[in-house]
Records
---
Amino acid sequence: TDARKSILVDELKARLAALPGVVNVANGHAPDDPDLREAAVSVNGQQPDRINRKAYLFYKWIQPNYFRTLSIPLLAGRTLTAGAAEDAVVSQSAAKELWPGESPVGKTLRLGTDGQYHEKDEPLPDGSIWRVIGVVHDTRGVTLDGSDSEEIYLPMPAEAASRYPILIRGTGDAASLMREMDPVLAAVDPNLGAHLLTLEQMLRTTEPFVASSMAATIASITGLLGLLLVTVGIYGTVSYIVVQRTREVGIRMALGARRGNVLLLILRESAQPVVSGLGIGLVLAAGVAWLLRHILYGVPIFDAVSFVGVSLLLLSAALLAAFFPSRRATRVDPMVALRYE
């Protein structure tokens, strides 16, 4: 029964909160939870419909210590408190969407889920006028375009807590903490089934992340093949050009040029077009990375390892391609080099 579920959840949370290393415990959707709920939003006091809706945003039922548990910073106003049934907190992006250039604290909104998916007996936010009391920092969720950062947080009804995951923030190793939870679960109810996941593990099981991981794998293989072809191409082209300059090397050596100076000259001239190409390529790559910024997980837009690493690889290929033929040419007798065709 619902009453039994509520008692079970409360007991579980109390025992989990007493574990060493546990900092906060709360019920609510995790940022990586793919089970999103969306509602039409109006800010004029009327029930949102096709005419007066301001936007479609995601909403979450949470408990007052939800933001502390997930370390989501408060930017303005205050967070939810127990017993405040009609207060709401919005994310930074949601505030900009609903009240651009204004402070949302003190404003009101209404939500409508008509036509939106929800489960049987699931609590719905329709009907109430919600008063915004605070703004929190955006969180990165599972949608590739980042649209789920526009969120409205609502106080969870007490009887609904058993419908949502128990979120636990701890210190130290997550795996060790999860092992300590097993006897607690068994003590509360031996027949209780629990699914323990870190937020990172939860994110990696979502459909958008799996799809993007597959796409990233394919793109990585394609990119490595392309990088291999480019490296071989640069090496072959530069090496061929340097071999064609063997007669020039012989003339320079016959006129008294030092071997080291000739070698440096060819290396410098061989590297110039490669450096110019890398400069143009880095600018284009930075532009593409900026366009793809919404689908990057755990990678900065301007990843220094990728940019610098690829540049050094291609430059090294050009220098090596120029070095070995140049060194051979400088060791050839000048008279032999002068007859070289």
Note: Strands lie at 22-27, 38-42, 55-62, 74-77, 87-91, 108-112, 129-136, 151-155, 166-170.
---
Amino acid sequence: MKIDKILVQLAGAFFLAYGFMFALDPELFSNMVTDSVPSTSSGLIDMRATYGGMSIAVGCLMLLLASNATSLKLGLISVALVLLGMACTRTIGIIVDGNPNNLMYIYLVAELVPSIIAIALYRRLPRPYA
């Protein structure tokens, strides 16, 4: 199995697992990640939908894109865009909000490294003639 397919599959599996964790128990996982829990029902509902539902959908899309060679290139782009988007906004949060816990730095590295790898793998793929 090629490394590009493995990378997209791993990213998809991670988003799927992360999404199910937050969909099933947003209080527990919010506390583990942010050291806090939303204080209202609406906060928990939104966390289930955003961290849970959207992450599940992103994971499914990535796994679908990894499933065949014709969509794998788009899968690499999706990994890079999603993770770079998260890394950029996490960096803004670290700068603007300050005082992040250690997990925020671990997440930042976990977002930057695979996105850089995805970009490098994408650039190695053959280009169609223009």
Note: The chain has a mean pLDDT of 95.
---
Amino acid sequence: MSVVLAGVTKSYGSGAAANRVVKGIDLEIHDAEIFTLLGPSGCGKTTTLRMIAGLEQPDSGTIHINGEPVVAPGRLVPPEQRGLGMVFQSHAIWPHMTVVENVAYPLKLRNDPQARTKALELLQRVGLTGMGDRPAHALSGGQQQRVSLARALITRPKVLLLDEPLSALDAGLRVELRVQIAELARAAKLSVLLVTHDQEEAMSISDRIGVMNGGVLEQVDDPAGLYRRPKTPFVGSFIGHMNHLHAVRRAGSIYIHRVFIRESPGFEEPVRLSFRPESVEFAEVGIPCVLRSRSFLGAFTRFEVSVGQERIRIDSHSDRASNFLRIRECMIETVKMPTAEE
């Protein structure tokens, strides 16, 4: 494993006012793997990355990088000795230096006589051939981020940390750069930890993804597993679109508006069905629905329908609708029974 976290916690503040932002994270990042921490703002993903980098100190737990403990009882290795490369959300370049001077700087600190030559080679790999002697501040945002990436790679780290590196760029450039980052990482057999809130970015380049929510890892899986087999309602709703319908479980069966759905153990209780837009289809008989809208989107047609007071989305390869639908696959969870006061 390139990076291993065990029982890592982090709080800000003290006493009753303490805000516990990371709550006992256990995480393993494999060699030569692109791993993404994905989640909404404030979920603890950036704090976790900063603890790995050495920019934050955990309250408890251990961190190993390439088999060596960098955070353990009585041991705290400083950031510059952890053998990491890091690209921040801001470009973090030195405006008074040229492009090649920015990239070569980490090797200059080591008195490497080949610093400029190596920097020019890296600039070619990130698509900045011929720009080495330009003032760094004169480059576009995307070019400046390429400079930051080249600078992070020049020391040949085994692990590359990426903290929302593309969020400040326009959509087209984000797609181009994330593909380039993935290609460079796999060619160099780097382990990469990417932190992002962008689902498409995470799903497109990651080998595995850890979905964080409220300081905990709710699920770690490959992109297909997260989408097809979410383990919690949050993961299901955060990764792609998820429909929800309320139903009742009665005497071993589940019903929506008195329509039998499937066999299920248990006595009468309210439940919620959660399912993807492509996991439901129109049928000749089944759950009654009312068509609200239809949109042709090229590869499929998107329908919005209502089932009682609830609205759901159907993505179908057919453009034909009916007054009934059938759910092929869904998650079932028990919901709270309303009290008399409610």
Note: Residues 338-342 have pLDDT under 50 and may be disordered.
---
Amino acid sequence: MTIDPSRYHQIFPVLTNQQIDMARRFASSGPHSFGPGETVSAIGDRNVPAWLILEGQLDVFRHDGLTSEAAVVNHGKGHVFGEVSQLSGRPSLAGARAGPEGCVALAFDATHLKALIIGSAEVGEIVMRAYILRRVELIDSGSGGSVLVGTSADSELVRLQGFLSRNGYPHIEPHRVCRRLQLLREWSR
């Protein structure tokens, strides 16, 4: 995923200590500790909470259509993991695991995340802007969500692409998958 450098601070904002203290009041449970490399959530999991990193690092990854995963971002203290899917309980488009030193994070299930967004205008605006911009980046880059495989002449595939695009759901289009397959074949020779 290629991220516009001028929007990076909005897509991956860092909350101040005061904002963290405000958000802490809305957490669905106390701090969770994750060991180095421990899986926090997998791609496709439903009802994944948003996580506010208090210590350490949370490494976020996604599928790229061919390899098992591609790095998206490394969240540190004050970062909030998640995207719009966290608000609705839909399958997660990204996975996360604790960084090399582990991490400590606060969980916000969908209900508590909504309460944070409504109850703290300042933090809620920051989180919602980040979530919306993350979704836009996934759609614009064509680098997340469903992987569509087929030919561009297939009317059913075109119909599916249209449906996903109209509904703002990220997907990797067939021409991107075909180009990646071609590069993989060339590389393996």
Note: The chain has a mean pLDDT of 82.
